[in-house]
Structure formats: structure tokens, C-alpha cells
Records
---
Amino acid sequence: SILLGIESSCDETGAGLVRLGGPGEGPELLGHELASSSDQHARFGGVVPEIASRAHLESMTGTVRSAFAKAGVRPADVDAVAVTCGPGLAGALLVGLAAAKAYAAAWDVPLFGVNHLAGHVAADTLEHGPLPSPTLALLVSGGHTILLRVDDLAGSITQIGTTVDDAAGEAYDKVARLLGLGYPGGPVIDALAADGDPAAIAFPRGLTGPRDARYDFSFSGLKTSVARYVESSERSGRAVRIPDVCASFQEAVADVLTAKTVRAAADLGISTVVVAGGVAANGRLRALAAERCAAAGLTLRVPRPGLCTDNGAMIAALGAHVAAAGAVPSSALLSGDPALPVGVVHQL
Ligand code: ATP
Ligand code: MG
Ligand code: FE
């Protein structure tokens, strides 16, 4: 059977179509389409909720239509609709929910409201098949930095660590802003870092002391440290080499994320690691995770960069897992929950 997934939790309008895999197979991606309002937020240095909602409204139907064209299927082929019901911006979620409810009602198919964060993890199953149980997932995105024990993508996901302040993606965005590099910060820092020296500046590794929480993260000290470095360089008339700042910052982020993930996998006796979310598109994080997982004898799975950042395919993928597990469909009263906890995979 075929599922349509709709994503609108932040500034990306996404629609994806997947085919449910057979037993032991992951869902198959048929095609997806994305529209982004990130350009409209760039001059504000972050997402403006009202602008995001309006952009979703304007691009939703066209994005869905284009996803169908790319996938080579028709609305009459769709057996279920999945939609992000949280976490995310309330007004942005509302647009996707309204669209998904309308499609499900018009086509007379079940609707599944699913968790955006679990969706990021589910994206990986489109490329690498079903997750072994248990899997350790590092979810690194614009709003979250969480270590998860995933026993079952369709229902059993447990948080074992999180950031105590900024998310990793938020740190990228704030550092880019203070360096005058625009929004979103991740891709531009990633690119500039290629010409920099990751050892040029010794930025702090948050929460890595012997008495710090083993699986929690902190990135606000790192962001402040970058700001201090830039300020003091300017004050003393030293030129700031932006590529070196980017490479050194990126190294600090990747170092802490991978060290804690590998440690958690060892502690919990979990042998498969998935890295997901927008920051998983980062070149240095992918390389260091590969290096350290290999050294620790862990299997690493990371979706291709285009499936790491927000998209509709990941929502369709999670919907496929939820539907295949025999979940009860959501009602027409399904509502968005901006603070939906990561363990709530789908909502009635
Ligand atoms: P959440 O998923 O927590 O609700 P979100 O949906 O806004 O937040 P994503 O779309 O998953 O977040 O990820 C966006 C974040 O990923 C931004 O902070 C962006 O800077 C970061 N990002 C994107 N590409 C890269 C990259 N190549 N390197 C580092 N960070 C990146
Ligand atoms: Mg985005
Ligand atoms: Fe996201």
C-alpha cells in the first residue's frame, strides 16, 4: 500500500510518497517534494512563525501535487495519509494538519498523526531498511539534541539524554548569526569549515567532565565562547579567520556528539547507531561518527543529507511503520501539539 506524508512543523513544506515494504523490508521512497521559506526568514536570523505559516499555506497543494508527479502515482493510489502533529510551531503544524485531514476525508483513507522527531529517525529506514531492536539514535536538529533508545519505531522510543540548553542546530544558527553568515547556519558553516583548521581554536566541549551527566549535552557555553573569541580578536586588532572559527566550532560539536553517542552505545550494549536530523547532514559529524563507530565496532547508519533535514518522505516513512504495526488511525479531531514528547510516536 501507498502512503502520503505531509510535513509542516517549521519552515519546510514537505510531501512524500512511500510504498509499505514487505515483512523485513523498510518502506520504499517513491518520490518527495520540498518547498522552503528559509529565504524569507534569513534577514531575521531565525524562523518567524507567521511567515512560516503563510508560506506553508501558499505552497502546500503545489508541493503535494509535485510529489505525486515525481513519484509517478495518483491520489487514487493512496491508502493512508500521515502528517506531523508535533513538535513544532503551532500555526505551521495547523496548515499541514488541515491539508492532511482534507486529503484523508476526500480520498476516504485513514489518517495518522505522527511525531516529527521519530520521523527524522524513520527517514533512515527508507535507505537502510528496518532498524534492529534496540537501536541507539542520536537526533540532532534545529530544536533538539537527544539520545534515544529505539526498541520499536512504531511505539517504543525512550529518551536517555538531551541538551540542557541549546540544540546543536541552534548553536550552528546562532554562531552563523554572530559571524554574519545568515540563516540557516549549518550548511554555510559546514562549507566554510572545509578551508579552516579544526585545531586552530580550542573551543570548550560542554558537559564532558568526569562528574557531568554522561548522556546530556550543552552547547550554549560553546556559542558564548565563539562570541568571546570574535570580540577579543576584534578588540585587539587581530584578524578573525572565519574558516578557522567554523572548523574549530564544528569540531567541538562533532567531538562531543560522537563521543557521548559511542559511550552510550557501549554502556547500553547497543550495536547499531543512527544519526538523524538536520545536523546529521554535517560533513564533519558524519566523518567523525563513521570513524569512531568503526573503532568501537558499531554499525553506523546515517540518511543521505537530503533526508536529514525536514521533509515529507520521513513522515510518510514513519506513517508506514505505524500503519504496519496496526495502529488505530487518528480522528478528524487530531490536533497539533507544539511540545509533543519524543516518546509519543503517534497521536489519536
Ligand atoms: P526539530 O527537528 O528539532 O523540530 P527543525 O525541524 O527546525 O527542528 P531540522 O530541519 O531537522 O530542524 O534541522 C535544521 C537544522 O539543521 C538547522 O539548525 C540547520 O542549521 C542545521 N543544519 C542543516 N544542514 C546542516 C549542516 N550541513 N551542518 C550542520 N548543521 C546543519
Ligand atoms: Mg528548516
Ligand atoms: Fe526537524
Note: The two ends are 21 Å apart (CA to CA).
---
Amino acid sequence: MAESFKYKGNKGNGGELHQLPESDDQRMTTAQGCPISDNQNSLKAGQRGPTLLEDQVFREKMFSFDHERIPERVVHARGYGAHGYFESYGNASEFTCADVFQRKGEKTPVFTRFSTVAGNKGSPDLARDVRGFAVKFYTKEGNWDLVGNNIPVFFIQDAMKFPDLIHAAKQEPDRGFPQAQTAHDNFWDFASLSPESVHMLMWAMSDRAIPRSLRFMEGFGVHTFKFINANGDEKFVKFHWKPVSGMQSVVWNEALKINGADPDFHRRDLWDSINAGDFPEWELGVQVFDQAFADSFEFDVFDATKIIPEEQVPVTKIGKMVLDRVVDNFFAETEQVAFCTQNIVPGIDFTPDPLLQGRNFSYLDTQTKRLGGPNFTHIPINAPQCPMRHFQQDGHMAMTNPKGRVNYEPNSWERDENNPRACPAHGFKSSSQPMEGDKLRYRSETFADHYSQALQFYNSQTDVEKMHIQNAFVFELSKVEKLAIRERVVSHLLNVDEELANAVAKGLGLTEMPEKAEAAMATRTDLKTSDALSILKNGPSSFAGRKLGIFCCDNTQEKHVSTLTDALKTEGAMHEIVAPTINGITLSDGTTMEGDQKIDGGPSVLYDAVAVLLSDDQVENICKIPEAKDFVMDAFAHKKFIIYNKAAMKLFDELNLTAKMDDGFIDIEAKDGDKAVEMLRNIRFWQR
Ligand code: HDE
């Protein structure tokens, strides 16, 4: 047991604690398997002498350490992954012969990695950013990587522009900042000179870009792909991940504070909830449509800056993903996992979307650099879980070279598992795609409308969400130094919606309204709003998976705490005890409770709602703790439900809150735990 270890002083070997076992299964060795006698002291010439170069144990240890880092991903560097399974509903075989969808109830292992885009590997989780949502399905016919985002459209239409987009979004190259944010001149300069980004900007400025947890966000394949069924019939398809617990985001002021209080907020939530057996789940949905629909649709289905509203092509659920196992080792799995959009399986195919076509080159290329060679498919997290038979060989770190004499084709050697052949009947076949035309660099005119769906998105939001979008534009553009860039963005917003443009201009204090940006096409005002685009219209129906922060102190009434914790348990929700000291508190009935957080380490921004359950004899002391005041004031400002008892009123008095107490305050003495938790299902008291 770790606690029983005591350092026993320097005995010329770094202390007894470190010298240990003689049994085989605990003995430390070098990477070559040679047992190590002393892992604390290098080999020296004399007791105080210089270290000897001869010390192979030291050299091997240091050499390995020196080479620990691999290049971080050029984008999506900050990510977190988990294992799980995909369970097929068995209803997609009509559209696709992809093996993973053929049998109802069959489970296919998956590994899913979520990420932010712009920040470096050590950046905070709650940056305003798009989230990557990449799923590797280890199917019986090879790995299928669905490398998506939590936003269904993208900033650009052609992969040719991607390096510029990313250069502009990441830190400015001369100064090396800002980190993990687009709130700077270069990003908005590029975006405002690339009007195709306007639709995506609306999503990126919405609360989609600050999810409450990875479990409460949607995912999208973004591009249109193809499904091919057993008869060879082809359909188009768009992929959607729908979180079973509904969608939920934080508010911007919370995000700013959470990044300080817990930069690992999202990964910790995923880790904790999986370990607690509260497994995040998403249903996989598909929008399947044919060429006739594509021809009649208002926009080009190969343009990744457009959605197909669910009202026009409904989303059919075809399976469920459950993440039920955390990684054993972050580096081996989350870092080394290599998603490639080119990894598809029979029954699925690409379309000519110029963004997707470019991605198919980029991912393979970048993994080769990042993981050091072509054999990254041999790393366990990337290796298919079905048989692989081919004649690819050698290269750095080759671990599964084919066996036997034959390593070429055609050959006349006896056929066996080491001598495979292509199989025309069952192998992957590209779908048909009639093609003809001149070689040219061109943006199809069917890609020219940049504003209509931006307006449709805006109009589909609730008033609260519209206000958040306006505020986000104002926040980001207020960090932009050049007035001309701020104005240029507003000139595009004028093409989207005047109310939005005016609100942003006002927030920026613009004295004159810029002229509307020139547009290739007039904005369509006839597109119907879509409820599916709003987070608040698709919120949770339960408090499950959410967390209550219970701030209590010595002599807090035990029943006030237990009625809540019991009700939360029934709901499937979590709680943390926030206390004046981490060593815990003694409740009114003498029971002791450990604190999960000391009050200054557990600000209310970390919770979906709070309870302030104090005692008469402690409340005065608590009124003197600045963080206790912030706990309540932030919860109030972030429109959270605040459960309280009579003693807490003194603290509210001190904060001048008593007169402002609204229906978002829940008196635990008037309501029992069940009733209180029922109210928490609304997540926030937006009327405040
Ligand atoms: Fe990526 N993207 N991307 N991307 N992307 C990468 O691949 C790229 C795009 C997405 O958790 C890189 O392994 C190009 C759209 C995710 O490991 C790189 C283009 C979507 C992840 C790359 C795009 C994505 C990446 C960097 C424009 C949503 C993280 C490291 C044509 C559908 C995967 C890596 C993970 C990562 C290139 C646009 C999603 C450089 C060229 C659109 C989720 O290859």
C-alpha cells in the first residue's frame, strides 16, 4: 500500500523504499530485459565522482526519455479517447452491404477520439472551438474511420484552402499566441475574405462550440458519402451522431472560468463517467437520399458548407455507440490512434466533395510523419481486428511482416493464408461515377450561395441562443485589432440578418455601418427553420449525467444532504461535496463526510446546478470566504438552479441576493430531494 511506504533515509542507494522485490513479476529490467539493481543512482567513479559513460542502464533510460515526444497533430492536437462498441439495429442493410450494419444486435468494437481543433496538446478543453468526433470501427471487413466534427458544416469548400485556414486560426506565427482561440486578427481576416466560411462561423459562434461535456454533443460525418447495397444500388448518405442524453452547453463566461478552474474539464468528465459506469451513448443516424433528391435540393450536396435539413431528409437511426472503457495508456491509444478518412469498407464510398478528396490524401500523409513511417497500422490501436493478408513489408518498426517465401503477385506458389489473392466477388469496389470534362481549377457555381443557410441556422435558434451568437461575435471581434477586419465581418453579417449585424455593430461600438459585402447570390429568405439546429430545443429530459455541487459545512442538517444525494442517485446524476476544507465536515447528526473539493478548488462553474446547505453556527465564517461568495454569485449569473436551506439565506443577504431570489431558487426545506431534482431537469433558469 502506498501509504505504508516511508522514506528511510539515504543509505548510499537513495533510500530503502526504492529497493524492492526479489520476485520475478515485480523485478525492474532494462528494455532489453536485463534486471536492474539500482534505479536511483548512476554509475560513478568514486562516491562523489563523475558519472561513467559505461553506465548502459542510465544511457538506455535517458535515451528513451529523450525520444518520448512525437510531433503533436497539426490540428486536433488536444484530444481524448475511449473504447466502446457499436451495436447495429440491423435496419440499414437495405441501403448498404457494409458488414457492420448487417446483423441486428451485433456489436463491433470502436475507439472514439474527441478533440478541439486549434489548440496545442496542452491547451484547455473548453476553448471556443469545433470539436473533432472521430470514430474507428474495427469491422470484420476492415477498419472504417468516420472522422467527423460536432458541427455539420465546414469553413471552406476546397481542401486547397485548408493549410491557410489552419495557419490563420492557430497562433500568429511571429508572436506564438493566442493559444486555442480564433479571437485574433489573422483568423477573422482570413474568414472575412472567405465568405464561404460564414455559415460555419454561425455555428462556431453558437453554443455548439462550448459543449458542457463531450457526451452532450452531436457528431456529424459532414460530407455526403455513398452507400452501396448488396444489389449494387447506390444512394447518398450523411452521418449523424445523436447523444442519448440530449445536448447541453455551458455559457461563455462559465467557459472562461472553467478553463482556469479545470483545464481538463471535458476529459475528466469522460474518464469519471465511464469509470462510474455511466456510459456515454450516441445513436448513429443516417440521411439517405438519391440522385433525384440531390438534383432537386436547393444546394450542391457535395458542398461541405451546407447541411440537408432533417425536415427535408429525416435522420434514420441505424445503431448505437456506447463508450464503456477508458484507455489503459493515453499515449499508446489516444495519441497513437491514426484516423484516416480513406479507411472505408465495402458498402461505403466517397463522393467528389473536394474537401473529402483532399482529406483522403492528408490523413495518411500526416500519420506517416507523426508516427514515423508506414507501419503505424501495426500499432495495436490502429490494427484491424480482422485478418490482414497482403504483400506489404519492411519499413521502420515492421512488426507483422508476411510469412513464407512468396511476397509478390502474380505467383504460382500454392495458395494459402500467406499467399492471398484479390477477390472480385467480395472485395471493395468503387461506386460508379460518370466523369468527363476538361482539367481545370474551378469552384462550381453550385457552391456560390454562402449566406442562405447561415440565415436559416440563425432563424432556427431560440432568443437566448441568438443572443449568445451575437455576444460571441462581439467578444471575438473585440479582440481583433484592425477596425477594417471587424467591419468586414459585419459587412458579411448584413447579408445574413440585419438584426444580427446591428447587434454586433452595436456591441463593437461601430459608429458607421459598413456596406453589405458583395454577394454572388442573393440570400434566400424562403428556407424553413429547422428545430434540429437548436440546442435548447433538443435539451435533456433528465438530470442524468449532470453534476450537482453541494456546498456544505460543519453542522449542516444531514437530512438536507441525504435527501438530495438519494434523489440524484435515482436520477442517475452525480454530485460533489464542496466544503471549507478537504478533510471534510461533520453533519448535524455527527456523521462525517469527506470533501470532494475545497471551496476554492470547486467553483460553481464546474457544476450544472448547486446546493448551498449551511448551518447557523458556521454561516458567519462562510460569509468571510471570498470563494464562497463567488460560488453563489457565479451560479446566479450563469442562471443555474440554486438549492438552499434557511441558514444559507444569511450568505444570500450578504450578497444582496435576497430581493432577487426567483423561481430558480429551490428551498430544500419546502421541497424534498425528488422535487428539487425534478426542477434541475430544466438545467438552467433562463428567465433570470
Ligand atoms: Fe481534419 N485533419 N482536415 N477535418 N480532422 C486532421 O489528421 C484535414 C476536416 C478531423 O482525433 C489531421 O491525424 C484537411 C473536416 C478530426 O486524431 C489532418 C481538411 C473534418 C481530426 C487533417 C480537414 C475534420 C482531424 C491532423 C480539409 C470534419 C482529428 C492530424 C480538407 C468532417 C482526428 C490527423 C483524431 C485531423 C486534415 C477538414 C475532422 C492534418 C486537409 C471537414 C476529427 O490530416
Note: The chain has a mean pLDDT of 96.
